[in-house]
Write a structure and sequence with these properties.
The complex is a heterodimer of chains A (about 250) and B (about 270). Chain A contains 8 helices and 10 strands. Chain A is α/β, with parallel strands linked by helices and about 250 residues long. Chain A folds into 2 domains: about 170 residues, P-loop containing nucleotide triphosphate hydrolases (Rossmann fold), CATH 3.40.50; about 70 residues. A 6-stranded mixed sheet of chain A has the order 6-7-8-3-9-10, with helices on both faces. Chain A has a 4-stranded antiparallel sheet with strand order 2-1-4-5, covered by helices on one side. In chain A, β4 and β5 form a beta hairpin. Chain A starts with a strand and ends in a 5-residue tail after the last helix. Chain B has one domain: MetI-like (MetI-like fold, Orthogonal Bundle), CATH 1.10.3720.10. In chain B, α3 crosses α11. The longest helix of chain B is centred in the N-terminal third of the chain and has 35 residues. Chain B is globular. The chains are: A alpha/beta (about 250), B mainly alpha (about 270). Chains A and B meet through α3 of A and α7, α8 and α12 of B.
Chain lengths: ~250, ~270
Amino acid sequence: MSTLLSLTGVSKTFADKVAVAPTDLTIEEGSFVSIVGPSGCGKSTLFNLVAGLLAPDAGSIALNGESIIGSTGHVGYMLQKDLLVPWRTVRDNIMMVAHLTRRVRIEDRDQAEVLANRYGLGEFLDHYPQALSGGMRQRVAFMRTLVTPHPLLLLDEPFGALDAQTRLDMQRWLLEVWKESGRTVLFITHDVDESIFLSDRVIVMSPRPGRIVADFTNPLPRPRNFDSLTTMEFVALKAQIMKLLYGESHE
Amino acid sequence: MNKVLRNLGIPILSIVLLLLTWQAIVVGFHVDSFIAPRPLAAIASITGNWSTLWPLLLGTIRETVYGFFCGAILGISLGVVMAKVRFIQKLIYPLLVLSQAVPIIALATPLVLIFGLTIRPIIIVVAWIVFFPVTVSIVDGLSHVDPDLLNLAKVYGAGKFRTFWQIEVPASVSPLFSGLKIGATYAVTGAIIGELASSTGSNLAEFQQHANANFNTAAVYGSTILMTIVGISWFLLVVACEIWATPWLRRSTARRRRLRLRQAVAKR
């Protein structure tokens, strides 16, 4: 596997607050990497640095060996808020990046329809987003991310606003789509279970200053299902991560 | 059917109630007909003078509509520029407030002096009233677009122009219509003020003044009813445009016709 994304000595300070201390991170092509950490640990700053919304104070960020510092249009991007526009149908929301960047082609429509049909939203193509449930809206938002040609997808707590049941469904669905798409995913969450269930690697961040404190390779075999959530490997990794996040004396 | 009944029946009922109250007061308190006519007498004065009133009414409608469009276009342009250029917003805002603090009646006479006894000063008065709520609403709409949505567009490398048309404009449609609706109700008031000042001898406002001087109170009320109908109709037309322009607020799926049209365009 080759390196898709590499951060070297990347740091960012806002006013006096060090949001991200000098940080190194490499992401292999095709892998699923999660970043967990409490709020204020700099994970969203890191995310915005890679997305190009922020420029680092120091260090380099390279995608496929080319610097992408402070420039946009290189990655897929999805937040906890679905950010679907209410005035466009599901089909047009999936095609939104095309609407935003160039002339829309008939292939864009076809691609949106194929994707929606494959993942069970075919009958809602002409619906407006307000007619959809929270889980369905997040699926549409993810399809909007998926139709972009970018190999790296940045997902910032995409399921954070969903109820526990829908969330589990969405996690399983995401694994399925990820496997079929062959994309690389950088996934931010503060849910430890979610990070272990989904990822090849779990990166733990800590605040003041925001930095990476651990980088675990997940031993949990794939394909994963609900049984994976109660295996020895899962629990052992979870214990290690919890210790880092909440300390030893958390009783 | 039930919904249509509720949406149309209740407003009609409230107007009927208003007319009944009017009738009850005039009859109950034995008001002389030259002080206040009965509703039917007022309506009869409209139908009786229809051949005189119709061309005057057309004139008022023309002033209202032309003035409204001038005001709306001016208001939208000004609002977009103000929302996009901070400096211009700071520069223009005081003048904007000033423009509305000037009593419009005091402004109408000098406008007639400048533009003469034509429709132009009247249109300017209407536009003067209409542009303000439109500008305020569009500045508001454009500056309250979800910043996360704008960031999303930025991450995908969307240009300013496309972001404006694809996100900022549609996001401002609902606020814009709030401004247009306020403007629509005030437009006819502007037209009547303009007519009073221009005194060409043949317009609805002067017809009313003339009737008033002759103690023809029924005709005074009749012409007031006509003015009000112009205002209400124009408001309803704007509401109809709003319903047409924002289908996502009322429907769960897009209109078939619109979809087919766009499919045809995309295939071509």
